[in-house]
Amino acid sequence: MEVRTMHQIDLPAQTGFDEMLDRDHSIRPHYKPFFDWLNAQTPAMLGQRRKEAELLFHRVGITFSVHGDESGNERLIPFDTIPRIIPAEEWQLLEAGLKQRVAALNAFLHDIYHHQHILKAGKIPAEQVLVNAQYRSAMCGLDLPHNLYAHIAGIDIIRHGDGNYYVLEDNLRVPSGVSYMLENRKMMMRLFPELFEKHAVAPVEHYPTLLLSTLRQSSYADNPTVVVMTPGHYNSAYFEHAFLAQQMGVELVEGRDLFVKDLKVYMRTTAGPKQVDVIYRRLDDLFIDPLVFQADSSLGVPGLIAAYRAGNVVLANAIGTGVADDKSIYPYVPDMIRFYLDEEPLLLNVPTWQCRNPSELSHVLANLDELVVKEVHGAGGYGMLIGPKASKAEIEHFRDLLKANPANYIAQPTLSLSTCPTFVEEGIAPRHIDLRPFVLSGNTVRIVPGGLARVALQKGSLVVNSSQGGGTKDAWILEA
Q1: Both 109 and 62 in a single domain?
Q2: 375: exposed, middle or buried (Cβ count in 10 Å: 0-12, 13-18, 19+)
Q3: What is the number of structural domains in the chain?
Q4: Domain named Circularly permuted ATP-grasp type: which ranges (predicted)?
Q5: I want to staple 305 with a disulfide (CB 3.0 to 4.6 A). Which of 289, 425, 429, 440 is the partner?
Q6: Do 135 and 199 belong together in one domain?
């Protein structure tokens, strides 16, 4: 296949926002140096660089397994060599909005497990929190160091056709993907070193250092021992668990490597037991302690929650953070910002209909062919309907699901996610993208300038998840 450069392609009429092209098809100023470089490259060179990237990712072992794939085959996440570029002034707005949002989410989590002021004030219906499947009564009254629950947050950002940034969803339980952010940058610097001489791209490679610092700050211990806890190598994100442990220089452990004695957590080592102070856990609440949650879990550590409640170990993220990233709670985040911070939200929410409310359900049922419908606990692009792309059969199937269990769904307008030039089979063409920056909350809130840039590789697709055929890009934040 011959890869064509941008000037060899008939660009389609724009119906949304393109990150590189303005409405009149002129190149946006922050993309101009890259566009000039791209047009000076030969198709053969660009194609060869893409093949090199695929080979290198295979050698490193950056793969994932697909939920529901009974073959168990590991897949390579497609990597696109055309970066998403964001100018400094836009990033400053995003950074401020992300810090504001995560501060409010942490305040909300502390509140609902303590005095529940926001519920008493009627800002959020109490039943949507207290009977939420992600609400953990074991956390009630438990004081955490610095009142922090979401030490690591991945906030999914999209840009709509109006040019504005919107938060699509908050990921506070075990947000993943940061290893791809780091490996994508490493790959781009290896393949195209000359590009980084032409562009002042803000670095991201210090993320593991910031992560370790954040985890250490979460503990009251003088010299805390930190570990990364994984469900094991069969987990779809195991590469990332091992990668982050290696990058931070800490131990990667499974539940069987830990035990609890006298309300303290210890790690088995060749030199004998070693006390663990901070666990960066990459498994869900229900599997973490069989004495408190799922009794048949072989992944967790018996007694871990008792040690946690005694204040002898920190879990990052905290147990029970999932209630704050539940899609039924998402519509209330702007109210959280006003309630806890007395500020107006800097980042916009997507308008959302809660199908648990009869009047909103009626609207959704009458407009299914125009809306996106999501399960409130759904993830990875599963359990959702994109009305404009769905068949009549799919729409009717979702109509039945909504009528049977309306509280399990929310609906949103179909946003026209912005597009970015992307290498595809036919050459270079616009494809829809999003961005997941990673917010680290410790003594201060820090964000590396960038994030996981995901791209929907199928023409017209709005689903960027790797499990649904999406790929990734390097995200460049230009320094001022």
Answers
A1: yes
A2: middle
A3: 3
A4: 83-456
A5: 289
A6: yes
- Token couple for 191: 């393949």
CB 246, CB 136: distance < 8 Å: no
Report in angstroms the alpha-carbon separations of 21 from 14, 420, 430. Answer: 9, 9, 10
Tokens 């709005």 belong to 462
In degrees, rounded to 5, the angle at the alpha carbon of residue 260 between the alpha carbons of residues 256 and 263 is: 160
Residue 391 domain boundaries: 352-413
Q: Which helix (H) or strand (E) holds 94?
A: helix 88-112
For residue 386, what are the contacts with CB-CB under 8 A and spacing of at least 6? 372, 414, 462, 463
Asked if residue 90 lies in contact with residue 347, where contact means CB atoms within 8 angstroms, the answer is no
**Domain annotation covers residue 220:** no
Q: What is the CA angle 80-81-86, rounded to 5?
A: 95
Contact 100, 343 (CB under 8 A): yes
Cα atoms found within 13 Å of the Cα of residue 426, Cβ hemisphere only: 11
Strands (E), 193-291: 226-229, 251-253, 258-261, 264-267, 274-275, 278-281
- Residue 317: is the preceding peptide bond cis (ω within 30°)? yes
Mean pLDDT in residue range 436-443:
96
The 10s digit of each residue's pLDDT in 36-76 is 999 888 878 888 888 898 888 878 776 555 444 444 555 67
Q: What is the pLDDT of residues 324-338, one digit of tens each?
A: 999 999 999 999 999
Same domain (yes/no): 242, 294: yes
Q: How many helices (H) and strands (E) does the chain have?
A: 13, 23
The Cβ of residue 4 has, within 10 Å, a number of other Cβ atoms equal to 16
* Structure confidence at residue 147 (pLDDT): 95
